[in-house]
Write a structure and sequence with these properties.
- This is Protein translocase subunit SecY.
- It is found in: Cell membrane; Membrane.
- It comes from Mucilaginibacter frigoritolerans.
- Pfam families: SecY.
- The protein has about 450 residues and is mainly alpha-helical.
- It has 2 domains: about 170 residues, SecY subunit domain (Preprotein translocase SecY subunit), CATH 1.10.3370; about 260 residues, Preprotein translocase SecY subunit.
- The protein has 18 helices and 7 strands.
- The chain has a 3-stranded antiparallel sheet with strand order 4-1-5. A two-stranded antiparallel sheet has the order 2-3.
- β6 and β7 form a beta hairpin.
- α2 crosses α8 and α7 packs across α8.
């Protein structure tokens, strides 16, 4: 405990770190206040905030910190920006123009960021119309259509762009990645209510407090398991040739390439979830098809058929996303240019094939573990854990929470070590985490 208070004291002594943490907390406070500001023309008294959204609406509501169900000006959150970033990133693989921008350094990244912002506006406008049509009923409107739709489409778009601006300010003036922290705060906002709901349910007789304590222990175990997956790496030794320039010697050292066991991050779960919502969508548009036994099984997220297909899709998408984000040929080429080589492996194509083989071997267990983490919430619901609390037992939310917390702590520790203070851990430095490439081709710890 003394070590903990000493570390806090050291953090507060560093003026730059103190200012950054204060700025981060203030920006996040502004975001949380905005999630409770209701859209203009919506009757707040008609909103049923206690109702829990399910399916993809429940997922969006969790990422938006409850703003989705509150009909807030921040209802769409940062998901349109995430979607735009993924689209621009994929364009960088398929379209030569965007691939060229990724290699142009700072100027190319600025152009890609501009493209991402324009695309975010378009995606947000379309999602805003869908949100207003599906989530706001005529009884809740105090302004007649089409003025209500046009007004709030502009408000929702401006709200998402304002959140983007907050995220950029947190990254520049605060600590950690701004967009990641905003998503994390939205997820954590639902934790106290879910915790209280589960405690009340167990205390009322559904298993008792002993069962509740067992659930807490299981949750801690799942978190530790997730940390192992996020932090797991396979190191490849790289030897650099010696070079003598004048009286100085360069190179001649051995370094390591850390290949992540889960290089795809949380993206395979997001892609798989998008496909798994298709059966439920078909059932909504075609009521007669909803009685089909196969469709019913796939629409029920607690069924074995649903979870088996979900796990298979995650494994496939993990291989797919790893293949498009990790380029062994580029790694081998960069290594060759810098005079590096893997001991016992010839430079060039042989090195690329070796790296590709290593990635393929570590991706299989990584994808299986990711699939297990993804279906744990459904398994928790099968043993009568409340749906709100079960979401924290795994899936997208838990991986995001673990990744963002580790990344933020790593940045705080860097500030401490740079000023000759002890780090946050007694046993050593906090290791890095899996980063998801952003639209500009750089690594961005988002989701």
């Amino acid at each position: 405990m003394k070590k903990f208070f000493t570390t806090l004291s050291n953090i507060w002594k560093i003026e730059d770190l103190r200012v950054r943490i204060t700025n981060t907390l203030l920006f996040l406070l502004i975001y949380r206040v905005g999630t409770f500001v209701v859209l203009p023309g919506v009757n707040p008294a008609s909103l049923n905030n206690k109702q829990q959204a399910e399916g993809i609406a429940g997922l969006l509501n969790m990422f938006a910190g409850g703003a989705f169900s509150h009909a807030s000006i921040f209802a769409l959150g940062v998901m349109p920006y995430i979607s735009a970033s993924i689209v621009v990133q994929l364009l960088g693989i398929a379209v030569p123009y965007f691939a060229k921008l990724q290699k142009e350094g700072e100027s190319g990244r600025n152009k890609l960021n501009q493209w991402t912002r324009y695309l975010t506006i378009g995606i947000t406008a379309l999602q805003a119309i869908g949100y207003l049509k599906s989530q706001i009923t005529a009884e809740q409107m105090e302004i007649a259509n089409p003025y209500f739709t046009i007004l709030n489409m502009c408000v929702l778009t401006a709200g998402t762009m304002f959140i983007m601006w907050l995220g950029e300010k947190i990254t520049d003036k605060g600590i950690g990645n701004g967009i990641s922290l905003i998503i994390m705060v939205g997820i954590i906002a639902a934790l106290p209510g879910a915790f209280l709901s589960e405690f009340t349910s167990r205390n009322a007789g559904a298993g008792g407090l002993v069962t509740f304590l067992v659930e807490i222990v299981a949750l801690v175990g799942v978190v530790m398991f997730t940390i192992l997956i996020v932090q797991g790496t396979r190191k490849i030794a790289v030897q650099y040739a010696k070079r003598i320039v004048g009286n100085k010697q360069y190179g001649g050292v051995r370094q390591y390439i850390p290949l992540k066991v889960n290089a795809a991050g949380v993206m395979p779960i997001i892609f798989a979830q998008a496909l798994m919502f298709i059966p439920a969508t078909i059932a909504q548009f075609f009521p007669k098809a909803a009685s089909n036994s196969v469709l019913m099984a796939l629409s029920d997220y607690t069924s074995w058929g649903h979870n088996l297909l979900f796990a298979i899709l995650i494994i496939l998408f993990t291989y797919f996303y790893t293949a498009i984000t990790v380029n062994p040929n580029q790694m081998a080429e960069d290594m060759k240019k810098n005079g590096g080589f893997i001991p016992g492996v010839k430079p060039g194509k042989t090195t690329a094939d070796y790296i590709d083989a290593v990635i393929s071997r570590i991706t299989l267990p990584g994808s299986i573990f990711l699939a297990i983490i993804a279906i744990i919430p459904a398994l928790a619901s099968m043993v009568h854990v409340t749906s709100a609390f079960a979401r924290f037992f795994g899936g997208t939310s838990l991986i995001i929470l673990v990744g963002v917390v580790i990344d933020t702590l790593q940045q705080i520790e860097s500030h401490l070590l740079m000023r000759h203070y002890d780090g946050l851990m007694k046993t050593g430095r906090i290791k890095g985490r899996t980063a998801i490439p952003s639209a500009d081709g750089t690594s961005q710890p988002v989701i």
